């Protein structure tokens, strides 16, 4: 007390305010995100909410692990609903709103439905890498499905034109709002049926979550997955991931980036052609050298073949002569044997002649006559 006054310390006032705030129930607050600060080293994420009608602001905090688990990827300007309680930092009497949950306004139900649809289509294999097709290296014609007067179309056409003089077939359809999903499905079918179209680009610039919802429609996702020609999804910005991105054969972060995916640069093709020409020239010269060397070897074999044939035949004759010589009776006589005849018959058995018979004895050189004096068995 100070005289007749009841005086409180600053700490007591701050503590009293904190106690009163603790009696307030938990509530939901709607506001625009005007500032969001997150750091891996901090335990909390700091968000400033603004009332767009009056400009009033409210500082809010949420545990970083809770915020990360929500995976909202909030951006400034988005309207959110934040659940929590008002608290006061007693040391400085600073009011803050301790949040326990955050939801984008109007998208909670949509997000839940999209997540369920995403799981359903994934179970059917619509996102499987095995079913995705390679894009043509140089398409005959490129189908572009986009909205009327879309900046995305201008960026895409400009990028393609700066890289390669490709033929473009543009199909304009409503890409947001009522009837957009049906228009996209019909446009995909029309482009796929166009003769010469080898690849289709589904292009749209950035937009709000609601603006991009048609590209997550089940009919659109199934049309992209079932297209008879490859489809490139170039919808929104890098952070946007409509379900058509998952079903497309290729995804581009932006429509501008899609141009670099669809067509090669003319300069790259020219360099590739020059390199191929050099390789072909080297291959032709190497083949000619191999053929020349082969012909020279064959010519040498043809020139030497008659000589080798004569030598083989001579060797064969010499061998046959040697065999004949070895079998010749004269060769036998040359080894000291003799041929004995009685008349014209060769004597093979001593019993075939009688004593006194005249014999003719042929030697290796010359012959002589003899008479049998005795026959010994």
Write a brief structural summary.
By secondary structure, the protein is an alpha/beta fold.
Structure explained in plain terms:
- This protein has helices at residues 10-22, 64-70, 108-123, 151-163, 180-193, 218-225, 243-247, 255-262, 266-327, 329-334, and strands at 27-37, 44-50, 57-63, 79-89, 94-104, 141-146, 167-172, 197-204, 231-235, 250-251, 339-342, 345-346, 358-362, 367-371.
- The model has no long low-confidence stretch (mean pLDDT 85).
- The chain is of the alpha/beta class and 377 residues long.
- The strands form three sheets. It has a five-stranded mixed barrel. The chain has a five-stranded parallel beta sheet with strand order 7-6-8-9-10, with helices on both faces.
- The radius of gyration is 53 Å and the shape is elongated.
- The protein is 40% helix and 24% strand.
Could you outline the blueprint of secondary structure elements for this entry?
Blueprint: H1 10-22, E1 27-37, E2 44-50, E3 57-63, H2 64-70, E4 79-89, E5 94-104, H3 108-123, E6 141-146, H4 151-163, E7 167-172, H5 180-193, E8 197-204, H6 218-225, E9 231-235, H7 243-247, E10 250-251, H8 255-262, H9 266-327, H10 329-334, E11 339-342, E12 345-346, E13 358-362, E14 367-371
Parallel strand pairs: 3-5, 6-7, 6-8, 8-9, 9-10
Antiparallel strand pairs: 1-2, 1-4, 2-3, 4-5, 11-12, 11-13, 13-14
Helix pairs in contact: 4-8, 5-6
